[in-house]
Amino acid sequence: MRRYWIPALLSSEIAEPDSPPVRVRLLGEDLVAFRDSEGRVGLLDEHCSHRGTSLFFGRNEECGLRCIYHGWKYDIDGRIVETPAEPAGSTLGNKVHHTAYPCKEGAGVVWSYLGPREKTPLLPNYEWMNLPPDQLYVTKSVQDCSWLQGLEGECDSSHLSILHQAFSQTKRGGGDPDMYAADSAPTLEGIQTGYGMRLISCRKADADTIYLRVSNIVLPCHGFVPTGGLKGNIEGYTIHSHVPIDDKHSMRYNIHFRRNRPIRPEERQHDRQIGAGFIKTRNLQNNYLQDREEQKRETFTGMGRTFLTHDSCATESMGPIYDRTREHLGVSDITVIAVRKFLLQCVREIVSGKEPPHVIHTPDQADLRHVACIVAKIPTSQDPKQFVSEQLKKERYWEIADG
Ligand code: FES
Ligand SMILES: [Fe+2]
Predict the structure, then answer these.
(1) Side-chain-facing half-sphere of 46: CA atoms under 13 Å
(2) Which ligand is nearest to the CA of 227?
(3) pTM score, two decimals?
């Protein structure tokens, strides 16, 4: 996690220069984020290096965040630029190193790098990173489970046919529900790539057609998911980032984008699902407001039509870190297993001193069009893997792959 740029907060949380700072808990560290007078973002240790008062209560003024106790003032790089309670000419501030992490903004998200400075990579240039704000819709919500449990929810396509199904037309979610219903036991395959894993699922659509979906697990904690179904090839897909708050909590970022048009109001479903403090309105504490009548007649879960709620219930109700020795994995878990093996392999490589995959150091590595989400209907006579590799070779695969 410390070798990659990861989402730290939404840009909108600190919308204006000199706006109030916000608390950020990230990788088990308590931090505070602020936007200085010049619009630059700083991410500092929450506790003042003097005697520990929280900088969350500080004054954000004249290009720095000032502690309210004795007025020590910090710039975005963590330099102590004023110590007004010390005698004139004091050099105390110069001797203190206050933790500060670099930040960059893209896709409405503040990305931060919490690793060794000499190894700072480039921010990946995903196709959605620099879209205009009206073509992006970004939300976040707290998940009461480890980030990996959340990420594993992106790894099996099979649960689409079960967890997210609806019996009534009005309660249907997005994507291609008819296709999910056509085959509840898709064939799954995970393929290792330079950025993570490409996950392919194939359902029997009818006697001579396969419904094929390609999603991606992108290091360190992102799922690129073809949420739009067959239409989404042209319109855009969704990025789900599962960022560790600490070992038992994570922040799920949902980055929806539309390549060629603004986001429509009806596409802003998550706004209605997330309350104050980025706590989901339907959450583990209130049993996701499950409605047993709805469960009988309208939806499989009784929890409304938003996939975010279903997915959260599935992964949070396991407990914050599930004891995986109690699992019984089957064929529907092949891609989960593949991702676990891949992540373990990455960890071993880092431990042995190797550079982890998908750490971007040169601009040519930042051409990431091969991180494609593809949904297509193909004839059963065609080899799905070959179809995918042909689509990936085409420069504008998303226009061609449309069903
Ligand atoms: S504790 Fe912050 S200036 Fe004293
Ligand atoms: Fe899901």
Answers:
(1) 13
(2) 2
(3) 0.95
